[in-house]
TrEMBL record:
Species, as recorded: Azospirillum doebereinerae
Sorted UniProt keywords: Hydrolase
Domain of life: Bacteria
GO MF annotations in UniProt: hydrolase activity
Entry-linked PANTHER family: MONOACYLGLYCEROL LIPASE
Annotated Gene3D superfamilies: alpha/beta hydrolase (3.40.50.1820)
Name of this protein: Alpha/beta hydrolase
InterPro entries from the UniProt entry: AB_hydrolase_1 (IPR000073), AB_hydrolase_fold (IPR029058), AB_hydrolase_sf (IPR050266), Epox_hydrolase-like (IPR000639)
Lineage, uppermost ranks: Bacteria, Pseudomonadati, Pseudomonadota, Alphaproteobacteria, Rhodospirillales
Domain AB hydrolase-1: residue ranges: 76-316
Length: 337
């Protein structure tokens, strides 16, 4: 008599682990296949997004990075730097680009990894590193001491430019920027796509559909308490924002934002350039009093514009006032020469 015949339950116990292993292996295989299919679909969707939203401007290679930028007009130079998630199109939609181009040479640059600009692996792409790249782009474009306008994360980059390369700028206009470190849950939530290996899996599989689903709520929060303009989502290239590459750029920016503000905050008082600061009193993204108002107290030669009942998108709320301040800062910069 065999062991299985004498102890039939023993055979069952030996077969069970083998059966479990088969089921686990099958589940892993199905999951891997599903993720691979999702990744392939997201890559195709990214290519389709780029086909439907072709470059509107020109390209310039700086320090090995291919940057896309818009250019229009003649006169004193102005450089526009967009915020996180966004692209240079934001300044077109707000009307700031067109208004400024009537009297200025205006350059709106897609920051590395956004729109149609590259973001090579290697650098951590902190605001300081992006500022250094844009400083070289300013030189390559032959812009003499431009006024730099930055919105949101772009304002942090503009501040890094002013601190690290003050002789290259005429002045800065800061729109709803982030300047002092705070505890931010959104940074924690945005961090996973920036994690090596895990982040690569996420941004090619789950992050694009999740980003597409959450983007309308994000935009609503940025404009709140005002309504999102009817034509904003029609004109904004939302599909570009949820490509794997731009998701990585947004995540990395979120991760570097707080430590960069912490590193820069002790240098603000040394700024000697003309500085104009904008904030919405109802800004739910970065806050008003703890950021822009505090910066105004530190930077003595700055002017502060508090827009009542306005959220994070101050340049959409009052583009004419933004242009007016750029004109004023530009005149002050010319007088300082």
């Amino acid at each position: 008599m065999t062991l299985e015949q004498r102890y039939p339950s023993a055979a069952g116990h030996r077969a069970a682990p083998r059966s479990t292993a088969v089921r686990v292996g099958l589940a892993l295989g199905v999951t891997a296949a599903a993720l691979a299919g999702l990744a392939a679909a997201n890559v195709l969707a990214a290519r389709e997004a780029e086909r439907r939203n072709p470059p509107k401007g020109r390209f310039l290679t700086v320090d090995g990075v291919r940057l896309h930028y818009l250019e229009e007009g003649e006169g004193p130079p102005v450089v526009l730097i967009h915020g996180n998630v966004s692209t240079s199109d934001d300044f077109l939609i707000s009307g700031v680009f067109e208004r400024l181009s009537r009297t200025h040479r205006v350059i709106a640059i897609d920051r590395p990894g956004f729109g149609h600009s590259e973001r090579p692996r290697g650098p951590s792409w902190t605001p300081g590193e992006q500022a250094a790249l844009l400083r070289h782009a300013i030189g390559r474009l032959g812009l003499e001491r431009p006024v730099v306008v930055g919105h949101s994360f772009g304002a942090t980059v503009a501040m890094a430019l002013a601190l690290d390369h003050p002789d290259a700028l005429g002045g800065i206009v800061l729109l709803a920027g982030y300047y002092f470190p705070t505890k931010r849950i959104d940074v924690v939530l945005a961090a996973p796509p920036a994690i090596p290996v895990l982040g690569d899996v996420l941004r090619y599989t789950l992050s694009p559909p999740f980003g597409a689903a959450s983007l309308p709520l994000l935009v609503k929060t940025m404009f709140a308490p005002r309504e999102v303009p009817d034509d904003f989502m029609e004109q904004f290239p939302a599909s570009l924002a949820v490509r794997p590459g731009q998701i990585l750029a947004s995540s990395q920016d979120g991760v570097t934002m707080v430590p960069s503000a912490d590193a820069m905050q002790h240098r603000y008082g040394a700024l000697a350039l003309p500085v104009a600061i904008f904030t919405g009193t109802e800004d739910r993204v970065v806050g008003a009093e703890g950021q822009s108002s505090r910066l105004h107290e530190v930077v003595r030669q700055s002017t502060l514009h508090r827009l009542p009942g306005v959220g994070h998108m101050v340049h959409h709320a009052d583009p004419d006032l933004v242009v007016q301040e750029v004109e004023r800062v530009s005149a002050l910069a010319k007088a300082r020469v």
